Amino acid sequence: MKRLATHSIWRRPLTPILRYRAPQFFRSASSDTTTSLPPALLQRARNLASEHDRLSKSLSDSFDTKTARRVGELSNVATALQEFDEAQDSLAELHSLLTSQDAELRQLAADELEPTTERVEALVHKLTAALTPKHPFADMPCLLEFRPGPGGLEGRFFTDTLFRMYKQYLSRHGFRVRIVKYEIADSAGDSTGAAGENPVQEAVLEVEDVGSYDLLRGEAGMHRVQRIPVTESKGRTHTSAVALWVLPSFPESNAETADYDDPESIFYINPSDVKQEVMRARGAGGQHVNKTESAVRLTHIPTGTSVSMQDSRSQVRNRVAAWQLLRARVAQQRREEREEMAFSLRNSVLAKDKITRADKIRTYNYSQDRCTDHRSGLDVHNLPDVLEGGETLDRVIQSVREWMVARDIRAMMADEEAKATAENGNDKKA
């Protein structure tokens, strides 16, 4: 009998820096000879593997770019399914050998049972992750957009805190970042926070590395802070919030990939639908301020989305940056509308997992030295390390990624089960 080596729990690299560990969804029963996927999920895997084999054969006859791309997309599922089936067969063979009359074979089977079971479990996770639909923006760079929410001046100070946190986190992991916009509230004067934070009105940080959207998309939402403001004389804790958006980004140099000129593209914006205005910059800036019309404001009339940019002294540069941000916001809005339609068709139990911009996804509590993510349920301490973008923040972000995969798998399983139910209903009617 072929000896199977022990394999560790499967991990899928998501970036050159971080690795994601698939959560333990399915467990083997000790009395069963196999560890299996839910029937709907396993059937989906077999259907996709059959499509992979059929398309691969057609490629041998005539090459087609679209077909080759689809084969590449399905190859992970086909490979994972083959490995899973082989491991299942090995596990079943071991269970049968446990009842053999040959003592040596029984001992060999007993020695191999645990590592083989672990391998099957690992392959269940691998196949499940391969089946999870890939987010359409997953391979893109991204824009992080920060805006103060409820909380007045304290909310603006914490906006700067979060801006610094993500900037340090990305720098620590070697990502290329660029400050697209960093605007301080005029009404705040020269006031600063306890740690020297600026009263930020709006900030936009671009992460230029491909795949950064997939890494950071779980960070979008309302971030709540509970702390004693520097201006508080009675030692009372105040609650403030900061809104963070994670948007797909397409630099102007990559316009062909972005399909800006394709009306069917989610990134397409008809120039005639955009109102363009130029104005004088405001705020600190020396002689340049209020003397040249370098600031640019773009308004997408159909959606009412407005973008203003004045960070550069060049009107041309401000216009390029404004168009980039406008396209990202409109594309994200269109994507959210499509997701809302899809979630409305699913089971209401699944729909409540949908996170919207208004939800408070995370709390930073200074007095308790605690950071809590309300989706994954993870509590971590050492808040200073979190706010410095340290390893504790890595744990929080990874827990959110695991929560998102679990949510996506449940949604995918609900879709497959609904399809199976519909097909069975049609068969009975026929």
Automatic annotation (TrEMBL):
Assigned keywords, A-Z: Methylation, Protein biosynthesis
Q: Which domain of life is it from?
A: Eukaryota
Q: Name one GO molecular function term.
A: translation release factor activity
Q: Name one Pfam family in it.
A: RF-1
Gene Ontology biological process terms, A to Z: mitochondrial translational termination
Every Prokaryotic-type class I peptide chain release factors domain range? 280-296
What are the record's GO terms for cellular component? mitochondrial inner membrane
The answer to whether the entry has keyword DNA damage is no
Q: Does the keyword Protein biosynthesis apply?
A: yes
By sequence similarity, the record places it as follows:
Belongs to the prokaryotic/mitochondrial release factor family.
UniProt name for this protein:
Peptide chain release factor 1, mitochondrial
The scientific name of the source species is: Pseudallescheria apiosperma
